[in-house]
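User: Okay, second chain of the day. Same drill as before: sequence in, structure tokens out.
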Amino acid sequence: SQPHLSSVPSSLGVILGAVFGSLLRLLPPLDEDLLVLISFPGDILMRMLKMLILPLVISSLISGLAGLDAKSSGHMGTRAMVYYMSTTVLAAVLGVILVLSIHPGNPKLKTATGAAERSEEVSSLDAFLDLIRNLFPENLVQACFQQ
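Assistant: Same drill. Structure tokens below.
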């Protein structure tokens, strides 16, 4: 059985991203504006993924439970809770292992990449990218109530 063709480009993207991210640590200290530009697409992607989580989970739960009768939904609810709790524990353990091995946000790595101390003044690039960043709220419900 061959892998699905749409999974090949995404797997290649993950591998290339990891390779380029590792190579960036070997470069001399980068300019702060360049670091902001490099991290901008990732910020937008994470905001869009966070925005989709709540509607996706709620709609899938409602549509799944709507097709079940009362007796089987009790059994399915128990199974869903066990599955949810076990995957949550697995994700937490995996997160702790990755944090201990990769050390994201390590101040020593920040000084090595040139982002040691961020200046208090806001550059025009930061203001422009923040304007675009705010087009994609992290929490859709919170964004609706804030308006």
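The chain has a mean pLDDT of 80.

User: Thanks, on to the next one.
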